[in-house]
Amino acid sequence: MSAPFEERSGLVPCATPWGRWYQTLEEVFIEVQVPPGTRAKDVCCSLQSRRIALSVRGREVLQGKLFDSTITDEGTWTLEDKRLIRIVLMKTNRDAGNCWTSLLEKEYAADPWVQDQMQRKLTLERFQREARIICLTFPYLHQNPGFDFSGAEISGNYSKGGPDFSSLEK
């Protein structure tokens, strides 16, 4: 079984003072470095549809209005190795055109180069997903299941997720 697209194509992280964040078509990942030995009871994390608040040992680390909405019930946080908090948020809008330009509305924006790389990755992820759907729709393509865009290069206009093929007739 092959690895998920995100693992094969790598991450496009946006560095922050407390760690980093990155995204896929469906999720936003936040990794916060915390002092070694941090325990779960030292962490206070509130995840809402458009807001996030994280404090560790009474110190605010991250707080504000998210760039876009998320599904509250599907947001999670974990403490890994007593030194890293990983937060996973499920995007409400999960298409390639919904590339978050920042984590919060007014903070932690990706620089233009990183933003460009994030958009390319989401576009490739979308193409990979659509190729899978095509293979399921046309069974004879299963004989050549080599639709792997993880190493592909995109040129041209891919803003807002690339070309829209949804209007093409079947």
From TrEMBL:
Localization annotation: Chromosome, Centromere, Kinetochore; Cytoplasm, Cytoskeleton, Microtubule organizing center, Centrosome; Cytoplasm, Cytoskeleton, Spindle pole
UniProt keyword annotation of Phosphoprotein present: yes
Domain CS: residue ranges: 14-104
A GO molecular-function annotation: unfolded protein binding
Gene Ontology BP annotations: protein folding
Subcellular location, principal: nucleus
The organism's place on the tree of life at top rank: Eukaryota
Annotated GO CC locations: centrosome; cytoplasm; kinetochore; spindle pole
Cited InterPro entries: CS_dom (IPR007052), HSP20-like_chaperone (IPR008978), NudC_fam (IPR037898), p23_NUDCD2 (IPR037902)
Sorted UniProt keywords: Acetylation, Centromere, Chromosome, Cytoplasm, Cytoskeleton, Kinetochore, Phosphoprotein
PROSITE patterns documented for this protein: CS
Function, as annotated: May regulate the LIS1/dynein pathway by stabilizing LIS1 with Hsp90 chaperone.
Quaternary data: Interacts with LIS1.
Name used for this protein in its record: NudC domain-containing protein 2
Source lineage: Eukaryota, Metazoa, Chordata, Craniata, Vertebrata
Gene behind the chain: Nudcd2
